């Protein structure tokens, strides 16, 4: 069965319980969340997250697994500011602990930006950070995300991720999050030759290392290096290419997570609506709906 879900929130009094309710309401059987705001290191105590209730509701809805996304403020590749790197290492360690305590085994991480010091130096710094955190007893897999190549991002080439693997002592604790928007924006032809792209990935890293797919369409032409998501099937990657990836037998057990943009209300630009209920239903039907955005607005999720 297709493991299909989306990025959900976690806030207010219900916290993780609310996350599960949101995912179930969209018809998802997996989901992804942050453990707190992605822009800062403020986190609530684990006792306030309502983890037990959330896990019970997951079981009730047949949701067996979920994914955690590390906050963007973690930049292990920064060799310019030691304090930034130290905060990143310390907070990544805490996020790994929180991920395990919440019941997930996968933490998605943007590899980081070298801030002008070059890819090689950035990769060395990332490996230094991961080697400071990962041990033989680490219970969570850190999934390095494929990146679009915006600015000084590391991870736009599969070779860069492979280099990180080679430099990490406990590389068995690493995995990859394959983002379709990022990979297309980075210049890989996943539209016409996904099989060829995957053969290259398999040679360099191993396709069994993919722990999560971010199934995102792109507002940009392939190779743009910009990273702007579009609603499923409505962008430059398109429905057919995304569904080809979605239905790959080699990855049937890998969670597929949607990170689609909310759809703005044309009559009130201050309002926007979650697209996930309609997108998930469309994907499961296997038939593209050209008016999907209008349906999302009509559904007012």
Helical run tally: 10
Q: How many strand segments?
A: 12
Determine the strand fraction and express it as a percent band: 15-25%
Look at the helices and sheets and give the structural class.
alpha/beta
**Uncertain residue ranges:** none
Radius of gyration: 19 Å
- Major beta sheet, specifics? 8 strands, parallel, barrel
Order of helices and strands: EHEHEHEHEHEHHEEEHEEEHH
Outline the secondary-structure elements.
Blueprint: E1 4-7, H1 16-25, E2 30-33, H2 51-60, E3 67-69, H3 82-102, E4 106-109, H4 119-133, E5 141-145, H5 158-167, E6 174-179, H6 180-185, H7 194-204, E7 210-214, E8 217-218, E9 229-230, H8 239-246, E10 256-258, E11 263-265, E12 268-273, H9 276-285, H10 292-299
Parallel strand pairs: 1-2, 1-10, 2-3, 3-4, 4-5, 5-6, 6-7, 7-10
Antiparallel strand pairs: 8-9, 11-12
């Amino acid at each position: 069965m297709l493991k299909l879900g989306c990025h959900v929130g976690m806030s207010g009094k219900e916290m993780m319980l609310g996350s599960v309710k949101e995912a179930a309401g969209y018809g998802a059987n997996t989901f992804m969340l942050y453990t707190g705001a992605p822009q800062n290191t403020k986190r609530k105590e684990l006792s306030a997250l309502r983890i037990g209730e959330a896990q019970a509701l997951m079981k009730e809805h047949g949701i067996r697994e979920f994914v955690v996304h590390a906050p963007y403020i973690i930049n292990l590749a920064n060799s310019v500011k030691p304090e930034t790197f130290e905060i990143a290492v310390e907070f990544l360690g805490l996020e790994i602990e929180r991920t395990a305590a919440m019941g997930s085994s996968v933490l998605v991480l943007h590899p980081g930006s070298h801030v002008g010091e070059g890819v090689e130096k950035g990769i060395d710094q990332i490996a230094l950070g991961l080697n400071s955190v990962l041990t033989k007893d680490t219970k969570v897999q850190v999934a390095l995300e494929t990146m679009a190549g915006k600015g000084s991002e590391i991870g736009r080439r599969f070779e860069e991720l492979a280099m990180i693997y080679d430099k990490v002592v406990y590389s068995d604790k690493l995995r990859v999050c394959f983002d379709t928007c990022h990979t297309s924006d980075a210049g890989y032809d996943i539209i016409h030759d996904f099989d060829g792209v995957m053969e290259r990935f398999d040679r360099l890293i191993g396709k069994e290392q993919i722990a999560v797919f971010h199934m995102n369409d792109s507002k940009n032409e392939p190779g743009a290096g910009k990273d702007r998501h579009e609603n499923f099937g409505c962008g430059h990657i398109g429905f057919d290419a995304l569904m080809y990836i979605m239905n790959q037998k080699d990855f049937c057990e890998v969670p597929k997570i949607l990170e689609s943009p909310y759809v703005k209300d044309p009559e009130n630009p201050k309002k926007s609506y979650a697209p996930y209920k309609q997108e998930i239903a469309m994907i499961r039907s296997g038939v593209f709906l050209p008016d999907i955005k209008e349906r999302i607005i009509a559904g007012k999720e």
